[in-house]
Amino acid sequence: MSRKRKKPPEGTFQATIHALSHDGKGIASVEGKTTFIPNSLPGETVEFNYTRCKSSFDEGRVTQILQASPDRATPLCPHTDVCGACSLQHIQHDAQIQLKQDTLLNQLKHFGQTAPKTILAPITGPTHYYRLKARLGARHVEKKGLPLVGFREKNGRYLAVMDSCAILHASVGKKIMALRTLLSTLSCPNQIPQIEIAIGEDTTVLIIRHLVPLTPDDLDLLAAFSQKEDLCLYLQPGNKETIQTLEGSQDLPLLHYTLPDHGLTLYFHPIDFIQVNLDINRKMVNHALALLELSPSDNVLDLFCGLGNFTLAIAKQCHHVTGIEGTQTMVDRAYYNAKMNNITNADFYTYDLNESFSNEAWGKQPFNKILIDPPRSGAEAALPQIVALNPERIVYVSCNPATLARDAGILVNQFGYQLEKTGVMDMFPHTTHVESIALFTRKQKK
Description:
The protein is α/β, with parallel strands linked by helices. It is built from nine helices and 21 strands. Helix 1 crosses helix 9 (401-414).
């Protein structure tokens, strides 16, 4: 038998916020029960309505700020109360960084039972118009007028009504209304579910997913829009392998970004994974190499290497570097980038790093330093093989503090490494996403 959901109390209530949750919601205690209230900050007194009641906690929505925190900021984006793309625009940037650092350290303490010897200074950069990769939803809703283009609402059910975006690169973020108008002129606005965005240093690409064939008039409209707005439009009639130019060619030119401090230009396909914040990525690469303390005699292993973002910069400072990635496409891209940058001391291999690599020829090489930049699931499966190589330094770049904390606990408490340093990198300002970096060192034998 399904339980009947408890109806939230009606009316307006008052609460004092005493903390922030890891996802940026204000926490209050109302009549002894924990209540999460988004868009509120510690020290604030707010009026709110209940939105959901559960046995262990309640949720509410702010209707009025009665006493504001000094950490409260005025959002640049007018859609921040509705759009779910970012949830921290109401918080001063310094306070956002502190929240992320606290989240990282708390996760390390509770999930990893460890703590760093040194907390690194946060890496920060532009806070608006920074995002180079995104997938925007598109939906034709008659009563909304123009088709909707953008991110989902905070509740995740519907697309937010928006005409601009303050976190997307300005070449797209300031043209959301133009995109909505464009879709309204096509023959099938209700058959376009998404638009993929990829931005290089000199080109902005929009990949339009369409569920039915476009007409010649549609193609003419897209071509005219592309020229007017200085955007490169591609079409995706099916899966990712069907991406093509407006003229029907699947031979797509590569985009690129640069790492000037290392004299590198890296090329990528619009659907390849890249770091979304170019300024932070450049600082992150420099930071990772500094923590590795590279020397001309080092033999380095770069796990989850992607298209060579770290690998090729490492190659410029060591004897040899080996990059491992899970897909052949990205390994091919890494080799291409090595070739285009005249790097000859880097090798790349395709391998599933959830499997043991101890019997692979490359896995038997003597690596004295290792960099890992895993997906959100972390690198737990690879840790025994990493430790078996006995590296003196391990630099771990993480997009998920929970799995970093888990893996840090394994390295420290099971394998005897020391967590020397860790800190946050503001890859996604105004969001609760926590990007971080950690240095582990091998304990010296007494």
